[in-house]
Amino acid sequence: YTPEDSRSLAELDESAVEEVEEETSDNRRSLFDAVELRMSAKLMTVITKSQLGCLSLWKDKNESPIKNDTLVSVLRRSSLGEIKWDNAHMTLYCKLVVWRDEVAKNEGLLPGMVCPLDLLVKIALKQPICKDGLRRLSYFFPGLLEDPSLHYVERMLSIVQEAKKNSHTTKSFLARKYPKYMMNNSDNDDLSHNSNCSASNENVDEPESTTDQVEIYDEKTLAEQVAARVTTLKWTAVGAAVVAFWIGSSRPKR
Questions:
Q1: Which of 70, 98, 134, 152 could form a Cys-Cys staple with 118, CB 3.0–4.6 A?
Q2: How many CB atoms lie under 10 A from the CB of residue 95?
Q3: Where is the composition biased (Basic and acidic residues) (predicted)?
Q4: Domains in the chain, CATH or no CATH each
């Protein structure tokens, strides 16, 4: 070969190498234009199914504390006189919901992963002031509450203890002003429920003020919603009874 032929072959080799590198880079590229992606029907099908799956699992709608099934059941039993649930219980429940939302915000989790509403309803109803009393409601705590270094359980129990203290103060005032009424309506459920709690567990830290935070769930609005829900339950029961009566009367008599 002449020197000119050698130079030509070298140029051809370089161009061939560049073509191979371009083809290899095209096959292995990780960045695609959006226009090309829209033309892929299979890819869009996969993305659509993935999006629908995520939306069905992670809902952006907040969980309503008032529409909880356990709370509705407690309100129904309270309206029938089976258990006691008054404004003090509802106020404590609201404070516990606020506490749960704050913990969820600090930890970057969903509120339901901090503590389920069913457990908060039971806590507001029984009002345990120590871990032993809390174990009676749920032996296994959620993960954050099981971690002793985070002190979330102590904070929650301090809210309950403060609510009980305020409730006892109110009862003492009413007992002095209306002794006969309070004598006929005494309630000793809390004593039996917390009888095994030690004094060291009861002496939890004083809670921070949550009065302003409870405004998120306005008590008047809660009371109206609860009353409306109880009324709905009552009328539903009446409607069911009427339907059952007409069904029974419409059957042919033998």
A1: 70
A2: 23
A3: 1-10
A4: 3-57 (no CATH), 82-217 (1.10.150.80)
Token readout for 115 is 């503590």
Residue 99 to residue 29: CA distance in whole angstroms = 49
Q: Is 9 exposed, middle or buried (0-12, 13-18, 19+ CB in 10 A)?
A: exposed
- Give the tokens for residue 56: 């069905």
Tell me the two tokens of residue 89. Answer: 């219980």
Phi-psi group of 108: left, alpha or beta (phi > 0 → left; psi -120 to 50 → alpha; rest → beta): left
* Spatial separation of the C-alpha atoms in residues 146 and 131, rounded to whole Å: 11
Determine which of 136-145, 164-173, 220-229 has the lowest per-residue pLDDT on average.
220-229
190 contacts 164 by C-beta, under 8 angstroms: yes
Query: What digits encode the pLDDT tens for the residues 14-46?
Result: 655 555 555 555 555 666 676 666 667 777 788
**Tell me: the pLDDT tens digits for 143-182?**
888 888 888 989 999 999 998 888 766 555 455 555 554 4
CA atoms of 65 and 53, how far apart (whole Å): 25
Percent of residues, the chain, with pLDDT higher than 90:
20
Give me the pLDDT at residue 118, please: 93
- Pinpoint the alpha helices (H) of the chain: 3-28, 34-38, 41-57, 69-79, 87-107, 111-114, 117-126, 131-137, 143-146, 152-177, 179-184, 189-193, 199-202, 219-250
Count CA atoms closer than 13 A to 143's CA, side-chain side. 7
DSSP structure class, residue 141: P
Single-letter code of the amino acid located at 46: V
Q: What is the mean pLDDT of residues 239-254?
A: 64
**Residue 204 and residue 252: Cα distance in Å, rounded?**
68
